[in-house]
Amino acid sequence: MNEIKNELTEYADRFTSDEGQVLRELREHCYAHYEDSSMLAGFFQGRVLGMFSRMIKPKVVLEIGTYLGYSALCFAEGLAGGGKVITLDVNEETNKVARSFVERTEYKDLIEFHLGNAVEIIPSLPGTFDLVYIDADKPNYSNYYNLAIDRVPPGGFIIADNVLWSGKVLHDEKDEDTQALHDFNRMVLADERVSNVLLPIRDGLMVVCKLT
Ligand SMILES: C[S@@+](CC[C@H](N)C(=O)[O-])C[C@H]1O[C@@H](n2cnc3c(N)ncnc32)[C@H](O)[C@@H]1O
After folding, report:
1. Contact assessment for residue 152 and residue 134, using Cβ atoms and an 8 Å cutoff
2. How many angstroms separate the Cα of 17 from the Cα of each of 20, 50, 55, 211?
3. Whose CA is nearest to atom 21 of ligand 1?
């Protein structure tokens, strides 16, 4: 079964549009130099995020968790005219690398980097967010959702990565991160202001549409 799944995954990759030169180099740089390279969205999920962005055509994307800028660049592909991606991260070193790759793209003036703790930065940001991507420290997922939800207009979206946490959400005994993600999933499902779908893509993507 796993062999068929792997073959189908490869087939899906093969029949999905190319990511382009800079994203490919960024991915290869990450896999070659970073032990935590699994944090990067990767080819297929990156193409999914880029496609979501093209469908939503957001004016403002708020991304929580920049890492090397891979997903920020994917979201930039679908921005409405005059739109921007605001991306937040605490890590100075990865932020420098992210900036250097973004600088090489047509999106360099559309991506706004903020360095610091996202819990503190989000309340200081002005305006609304048409698309929020939660992809940072797991214990804060619910905090990020609660900080962002009132700033998302009706018809806007919140997407959260890793909500299946390598399947650990199914375990009876849950560590702190797993429990936080399970609580997040329960909180979203119970929120009457939204409609949601948990997509089992890669490590699980929670896609949430704000209704009112
Ligand atoms: C999974 S990675 C993001 C991957 C990126 N979105 C991508 O797909 O290319 C998570 C990032 O969240 C950052 N992070 C962790 N805690 C944070 C916090 N409290 N505030 C801001 N960023 C944080 C980490 O430094 C790390 O770079």
Report:
1. no
2. 9, 11, 15, 31
3. 89
CA-nearest residue for atom 8, ligand 1, is: 41
Q: Is 162 left (phi over 0), alpha (psi -120 to 50) or beta?
A: left
**Rounded CA gap, 61 and 75, in Å?**
7
Parallel, antiparallel, or unpaired: how do β-strands 157-161 and 111-115 relate? unpaired
Neighbours of 177 (CB within 10 A): 15
Give the predicted TM-score (pTM) of the model.
0.97
Q: What is the DSSP letter of 11?
A: H
Sheet holding 131-134, edge to edge: 111-115, 84-89, 60-64, 131-134, 157-161, 205-210, 194-199
Q: How far apart are CA 183 and CA 176, in angstroms?
A: 10
Residue 92 tokens read as 């100075």
Residue pointed to by tokens 């991915």: 27
Cα(30) to centroid of ligand 1, in Å?
14
pLDDT tens figures, 95-111: 999 999 999 999 999 99
